[in-house]
User: What shape does this take?
Amino acid sequence: MRLVFAGTPSAAVPTLRRLAAEHDIAAVVTRPDAPLGRKRVLTPSAVAQAAEELGLPVVKAARLDDEATATIAAVGAELGVIVAYGGLVREPLLSTPARGWINLHFSLLPAWRGAAPVQRALIAGDAELGASVFQLVPALDAGDVFATRVVEVPAEATADVVLDTMAVAGAGLTAEVVAGIADGTAVAVPQSGTPTLAPKLALDDGLLDWAEPVDRVFARFRGVTPEPGAHTTVDGLRVKVLEASPTEEEPLAPGEIVATKRTLLIGTATHPLAVARVQPAGKGAMSAVDWWRGQRRPEGLRAGA
Assistant: This one.
């Protein structure tokens, strides 16, 4: 098929590469170059870089406005495929490809419609994670579903690792749906069940609540790592938690901190969370134990205070 592809982050790249190997990609639509790093160097998106490697024409657009719509319409694509582009597709662009647009979404719809499905599913402690390919409609992630796939992920993996796993599995799922649309065998069915929403994460979503059980604290840590980052306060200062794992050690009071040889144990409502690496405000990443030993008066200090 002749396709137009829209996507921006690295999670969209496996699907782009898979479709480029099997179909004619008439254009790749992605967000404009963005400033990255301490020097704020303008850098093409991961999708733009992959498209350049593949020799595909790129359309950079912050919004899919009239100008972008005209450019996309001119390539004469039969189908649009979108994966984490970062902007809304509205009419008339929604109907511009002859067969509309399909969307790869990293949740088992109708669960977690929105910008952060993987992160919200991890925070909620969902037992199953997966991906869906659906027909794009004006309502948020509400279109009929062509296919879903449960994706096995490492038990303690953080959101970035889970998203990488989802991206690879989702590429295969999307390729199957596109092939089915091409040969006329693909069938989409309405979503069933109660929708849940997955809005973009804010900094406050990363705040760890030590009054919760350790499994809930660790679930939040997984969901917000690496962005916007798990954090707590100690002696009134923000400390980012970079590496952590649940334990079955003897309970401590919520927020109580005990140093071992390799980690800090921080009390929750049940067992402690083991914290291996941290990043105090204004400093680089370091061993949690080394940071704790550097505190002038660690006695009596608690996380969350």
Summary: Helices lie at 13-22, 46-54, 66-73, 117-124, 159-183, 214-224, 288-293. The mean pLDDT is 95. The longest strand covers residues 237-246.
